[in-house]
Design a protein that fits this description.
This protein is mostly helical. The chain has a single domain, classed as MetI-like fold (Orthogonal Bundle). It is 72% helix and 1% strand. The chain has a two-stranded antiparallel ribbon with strand order 1-2. Helix 5 packs antiparallel against helix 6 (134-161) and helix 8 (176-212) packs antiparallel against helix 10. It is elongated, with a radius of gyration of 22 Å. The two termini are 15 Å apart.
Length: 271
């Protein structure tokens, strides 16, 4: 199997299959889910049956339906936050290098300040003060991730900006945006694509952790982190319900990492 003109090893094909299944499930959830996301369709903790393949949850909602709706919200939100954080981190990282010492120093110190605080504690404080609103969640995690992406993009830009063709563009009088868009970004794109996959995993797990703590996505919306929290009490009763969302989180993370490993592998870089 080939992707982008390159032959994919088995592990990358497995990763692509896992990611594709999750994306298809997230997109087609209104068709695939047998019941609405928050509909109460039976007794709490009802066992699996022909009507409810994975059983019912603590409020009598269909677990399979909530698992599918959780895929849409968990994956969609993670992609949105990762895209926003990359837009900010890459732009400011490249800008710091192109503008020179003063901008580089100021932006780097601001990023150092953000990175000096533990991300989970910082997010918990912000969400506790401002409320666990979806907009607040998106902005908070985007800023925290942008600080880390700033470091990566700045390091890449520092290696590229010293090359002759960037200096030629400066001598021609090209502007900041032109140099970033036409000279730096195309040459930094391969490692940034791999970094996007890694940051998606971190964001995905971070949102799940906040939801598990009650500060992430709020009811009645379904996401896998809050589902793990809701179903964890059943572990003592030997019910497998909690393993469905936990397994979905682990499986998607493994799939994305398999793809990222292939993208960053030496074999691919040589092709």
């Amino acid at each position: 199997m080939r992707l982008f003109g390159r032959k994919m090893p088995l592990r990358a094909q497995i990763g692509l299959a896992i990611v594709s299944m999750n994306v298809i499930a997230a997109i087609l959830v209104p068709i695939l889910a047998p019941y609405p996301e928050a509909a109460i369709v039976g007794s709490a903790w009802a066992r699996p049956s022909f009507e409810h393949w994975l059983g019912l949850d603590n409020l009598g909602r269909d677990v399979l339906s909530r698992l599918l709706y959780g895929a849409r919200l968990s994956i969609g939100l993670s992609v949105l936050i990762t895209a926003l954080s990359f837009s900010m981190g890459v732009f400011f990282g490249f800008t710091a290098v192109v503008l020179g010492d003063i901008a580089n120093t100021i932006l780097s110190r601001v990023v150092d300040l953000l990175l000096s605080m533990p991300a989970l504690i910082f997010a918990m404080v912000v969400l506790s003060v401002l409320g666990a609103d979806l907009i607040v969640l998106i902005v908070t995690i985007s800023i925290l991730d942008a600080a880390r992406i700033f470091r990566v993009s700045r390091a890449l830009a520092m290696n590229i900006v010293s090359l002759d063709y960037v200096e030629v563009a400066r001598l021609r009088g090209e502007g900041l945006w032109w140099i970033i868009r036409r000279e730096i970004l195309p040459n930094a794109l391969p490692p940034l694509v791999a970094e996007f996959g890694m940051r998606f995993c971190f964001t995905f797990l971070f949102i799940s952790a906040l939801s598990f703590l009650g500060l992430g996505i709020q009811p009645p919306y379904a996401d896998w982190g809050s589902m793990v929290k809701d179903y964890s009490a059943l572990i003592m009763l030997g019910a497998p319900t909690v393993f469905y969302p936990a397994g979905a989180i682990a499986l998607l993370t493994i799939g994305v990492n398999l793809l990222v490993d292939w993208l960053t592998s030496t074999d691919m870089q040589k092709r």
